[in-house]
Amino acid sequence: KAGVTQTPRYLIKTRGQQVTLSCSPISGHRSVSWYQQTPGQGLQFLFEYFSETQRNKGNFPGRFSGRQFSNSRSEMNVSTLELGDSALYLCASSLGGGRTEETQYFGPGTRLLVL
Amino acid sequence: GESVGLHLPTLSVQEGDNSIINCAYSNSASDYFIWYKQESGKGPQFIIDIRSNMDKRQGQRVTVLLNKTVKHLSLQIAATQPGDSAVYFCAENEAGNQFYFGTGTSLTVIP
Could you report the per-residue pLDDT of A78-90, keeping only the tens digit for each? Predict the structure, then answer.
């Protein structure tokens, strides 16, 4: 099976712009979670989508949003970019259907640089 | 909030030695734990997981130990190899909630 894929892999934006990142989960996985990873920090949870519905949400401002499509592919959007949004954005997918189906598998990430 | 902490930010070991990476968690209701390995420029890679009804689980060259009494998790890597050099994260999960990750331990294997 193909793993989790994320596009684009690298992105450079300027402050005030917006950005959309895409994630395709492992085939059959219905849950997609997004994380932000910055130097010196662990992975900070953004949100999780399951069957096109946001199931969990982290403590990020409303500039960060996401959605999931019927094929389980997910996108996250960051509006009005700030310098501090520079990070590696990781997507993880899991089967998501129950307590034994939550093992998350990560994609390679999208490296976002905000200038 | 939740916290998942690592005792040591860096660890250096000789090739062939065993490595032990530790992790403390704070949520006593967490019942599922995962160890991930992250190499430079890559996303975290699943290594091994354990549920709270177990205190030990073994994989290929790796063993995870769970001590629920003191809320401590460890990852043991046997016969550490240069390819094991990476950052290792533990993650905890309580049913229905998000995963919480530690900040990571950087393992360097000295040839």
Answer: 999 999 999 999 9
